[in-house]
């Protein structure tokens, strides 16, 4: 039985692309990077390329970004501090995120977040997006020294909910960090992303959704299937 649904944060519960594309032009303007000969669109493009869909920590990204554009080295720390303090408050929820969390809670399952990143960035983002209410668990990699796809971070999350890993379902957009990582830990996993973004080198995801609210019916169907299988194994009374 699925007793808990755990979510990735960026590009799953939070529309990271929309948030980043709002933040970066403002950062570019605040630091007057145009005066250093930096093109705004190239600045945005280099940021997105260097972060590798969120797998690279921002404290490591900004020195590389500064080096790419030949900017003064001390600017990296200032840009990173700006990211830490300004970006989290701009986070917006993914379409259907709040409704899905609410519906899952009403259905009776626990709901949590397991995210790579720094706690002082990810937790304010959750609050800014209005997602705090309804979450039973928040695990951030920077707080515990583990990062997805390490199986231990998924095991830790299940343990904090006092549940076996196979009663948890993980939802995320990153094939390796989220889906492969969760499945290697023994969790069910749902890919929330476009078909054409799934690597050909990996087996096709067992479950995939296009919209977060589709998750509610999927959880109900999985539990109904489990109940049916359990019923067939029960000894019949004579």
UniProtKB/TrEMBL annotation:
Record keyword Kinase present: no
SUPFAM superfamilies listed in its UniProt record: HAD-like
Pfam hit, one: Hydrolase
GO MF, one example: hydrolase activity
Listed cofactors: Mg(2+)
Superkingdom, taxonomy of origin: Bacteria
Name listed for the protein in its UniProt record: HAD family hydrolase
InterPro entries: HAD-like_hydrolase (IPR051400), HAD-like_sf (IPR036412), HAD-SF_hydro_IA (IPR006439), HAD_sf (IPR023214)
Annotated keywords: Hydrolase, Magnesium, Metal-binding
């Amino acid at each position: 039985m699925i007793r808990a649904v755990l979510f990735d944060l960026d590009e799953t519960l939070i529309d990271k692309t929309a948030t980043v594309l709002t933040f970066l032009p403002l950062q570019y303007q605040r630091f007057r990077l145009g005066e250093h000969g930096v093109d705004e669109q190239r600045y945005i493009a280099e940021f997105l390329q260097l972060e590798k869909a969120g797998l690279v920590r921002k404290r490591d990204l900004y020195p590389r970004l500064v080096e790419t554009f030949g900017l003064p080295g001390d600017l990296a720390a200032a840009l990173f501090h700006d990211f830490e303090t300004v970006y989290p408050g701009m986070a917006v929820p993914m379409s259907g995120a709040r409704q899905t969390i609410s519906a899952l809670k009403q259905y009776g399952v626990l709901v949590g977040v397991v995210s790579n990143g720094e706690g002082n960035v990810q937790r304010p983002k959750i609050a800014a997006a209005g997602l705090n209410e309804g979450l039973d668990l928040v695990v951030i990699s920077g707080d515990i020294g583990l990062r997805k796809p390490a199986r231990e971070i998924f095991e830790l999350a299940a343990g904090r909910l006092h549940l076996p890993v196979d009663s948890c379902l993980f939802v995320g957009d990153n094939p390796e960090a989220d889906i492969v990582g969760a499945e290697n830990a023994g969790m069910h996993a749902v890919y929330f992303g476009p078909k054409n973004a799934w690597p050909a080198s990996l087996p096709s995801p067992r479950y995939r959704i296009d919209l977060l609210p589709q998750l509610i019916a999927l959880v109900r169907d999985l539990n109904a299937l489990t109940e049916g299988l359990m019923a067939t194994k029960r000894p019949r009374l004579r």
